[in-house]
Design a protein that fits this description.
about 575 residues, mainly alpha, six-stranded mixed beta sheet, elongated, DNA-binding
Length: about 575
DNA sequence: TTAGGGTTAG
């Protein structure tokens, strides 16, 4: 009889059904004091409710357990602390901690591990560390909990220390530390550790591969991302919603959005995140119409968009120049879903209007925003001013931007470019002087290129690459050939106080030119070249890349900070608008 | 019957 109920609870997949089982147990007196299996059934129900995302029901059951005069055991504490971590319910968890202490159960390995996890999730990592340091016994779970505690707060140094100190690591230790590096943007280290993990004989699991795919997406490492996909396929792994979303994102961010669409179409279940990732992916590639079609399809399928999904939809409008659709979508946030647009949504709208030359409408929107515009709003406005050469409005934006970000190089660079391109060289010079005086430095440009599964990194003016001589020679050849096709170096982009010849040299050392030269000598004729940049593409590199795509008959896919450029036969999919 | 690792934007 008992084991029948136990199996029922264990297999139950619906909280409603669980409540029915609970009612039967109550009616049968199995949850009342005096019942020999009362603690056991309480525990089973607490665990099941937490598993089915009803942690509040778990809390209620725990208080029932105490009120009925039962003494909770170590299982009860493990289960209730997990529920408290999920909600998260700091005070209830603390009471449970105090009670476990009173009953002498806090030294139990399982309870202590649950406490470490609970304290780290509810924000007091020092307490988690104290429990870890003072624990009577430790196993890999204790270490793993501590690693993920540090990962959660972004303290990778300490996470790595704990990882390195572990006597024996398991798959979860590797997964936790790889996820940490991947989430912290240290993708190269994440992938390095992933190789080490395999060298040490650990078989990759789905959860680990999700992080690995995120690292590939971040670095634009298509080959490695494809390897993961192939690995999953050859092992007949089920592509769950996490893996599917990670694959879609990886393909989109590595320039193969159509492969992402294929994964998306084949996914048996799609949640909001999967839809949002696909919509954003299409938007990044300038395929705004398709992205918006998908957004509507998502709404029809009953998935309710959140504020991030709206950012995806608005960005799609921006990259495709769909002003009216953007206005409609922005209005629908509140009118259809009761979501009040945040500053980011205003930023998208300002971007959309300004990019399409509606500078006055963009300014009106900025002026009547219900919150203070932030740097991204002013930045979007200013980029529009730059494109349409509206110096007066650009200066207006700069006044605000400099107050918000007095040390950001981007503002000064953009302003100097605006002055230079509208012929106000004295003003441009003044900006350069100001930058120098304030010791504001440009963020160095960095480009990544993956050749045969290895990611190579180039910084602006970088001479550290083993083949730098060949690369520079190749660039000279490229420059000669594209000059014949009409290339004129655009020296306005150079903000250094150097002479004209030196300016040309400085342009030729931009990280993406070095990366393209390297890619041309390292790949066979006709192969697509894929680059990932940390900054926006500069006008000169954009012009040069268009011509290279024509002269060398190569497709060149460049991912910049926010979107993709596909250079083909002398033109770019961004239509020179970025 | 216990505890630990995963995906989207800015």
């Amino acid at each position: 009889m008992s084991s029948n109920f136990s199996t029922l609870i264990l297999r139950c997949s619906d909280p409603k059904h669980l409540r029915e089982i609970q009612a039967v147990l109550t009616a049968g007196g199995l949850l009342l004091s005096g019942s020999s299996s009362g603690v056991f059934f309480h525990n089973s129900l607490i665990r099941a409710y937490t598993r089915l995302s009803s942690p509040c029901s778990s809390l209620l059951l725990f208080s029932d357990l105490l009120r009925s005069g039962f003494l909770p055991d170590s299982h009860s504490f493990s289960f209730i602390l997990k529920a408290c971590s999920l909600i998260p319910a700091r005070f209830t968890g603390l009471s449970a901690h105090a009670l476990a202490f009173k009953l002498g159960l806090d030294s139990d390995l399982f309870v202590n591990n649950s406490l470490i996890h609970f304290h780290s999730v509810t924000g007091v990592i020092a307490d988690a560390r104290l429990l870890f340091d003072r624990s009577y016994q430790r196993d890999s779970v204790s270490y793993n909990s501590m690693i993920s505690a540090y990962v959660r707060v972004g303290d990778l140094g300490n996470a790595r220390n704990v990882f390195d100190e572990m006597p024996t690591r398991d798959g979860i230790s590797w997964s936790a530390i790889i996820a940490g590096y991947a989430q912290g943007g240290a993708s190269k280290e994440a992938l390095r550790l992933f190789s080490r993990m395999q060298e040490e004989g650990f078989v990759p699991e789905g959860k680990t591969l999700v992080s690995v795919l995120a690292a590939c997406a971040h670095m634009g490492a298509l080959e490695q991302g494809k390897w993961v996909h192939g690995y999953l396929r050859s092992n007949g792994a089920k592509i769950d919603v996490f893996l599917g979303t990670a694959l879609i994102d990886m393909y989109a961010k590595c320039g193969e959005v159509d492969l992402g669409l294929k994964v998306f179409d084949e996914m048996p279940e799609k949640n909001l995140l999967a839809w949002t990732t696909m919509i954003k992916g299409l938007g990044m590639h300038g395929r705004g119409e398709e992205a918006l079609q998908l957004f509507s399809e998502m709404e029809r399928s009953g998935v309710v968009p959140d504020d991030i999904a709206f950012i995806g939809a608005l960005c799609a409008c921006t990259h495709a120049g769909l002003v009216d659709r953007g206005r409609q979508i922005f209005d629908s946030m509140y009118h259809c879903y009761g979501l009040r647009p945040k500053v980011e949504h205003y930023g998208c709208m300002v971007d959309l209007l300004a990019r399409n030359g509606l500078l006055n409408e963009a300014k009106e929107l900025v002026d009547c925003m219900p919150m203070e515009p932030d740097a991204s709003v002013w930045g979007a406005f200013m980029a529009g001013c730059r494109f349409y050469r509206n110096v007066e409005l650009a200066e207006y934006a700069v006044k605000h931007l400099i107050q918000l970000e007095p040390n950001s190089s981007g503002v000064y660079v953009l302003l100097a470019n605006i002055y230079a391109s509208s012929g106000r060289h004295a003003d441009a010079k003044m900006v350069r002087y100001l930058m120098k005086k304030k010791r504001i430095e440009k963020i160095p440009g960095c480009t990544l290129v993956e050749i045969r599964g290895i990611v190579h990194q180039f910084l602006v003016g970088d001479t550290s690459h083993a083949q730098i001589k060949d690369i520079l020679m190749k660039w000279d050849e490229i420059e000669d050939r594209i000059r014949l096709a009409g290339y004129v170096p655009n020296k306005k982009e150079v903000l250094l106080d150097i002479n004209e010849d030196e300016k040309e040299d400085a342009l030729g050392r931009h990280s993406e030119k070095l990366a393209i030269a390297f890619a041309l000598i390292s790949t066979e004729d006709g192969a697509t070249i894929r680059l990932v940049k940390n900054l926006r593409v500069c006008t000169d590199c954009h012009d040069a890349t268009k011509l290279i795509s024509k002269v060398y008959e190569r497709e060149i896919v460049v991912r910049d900070r926010t979107r993709f450029h596909l250079f083909k036969d002398g033109s770019c999919t961004c239509k020179d608008f970025w």
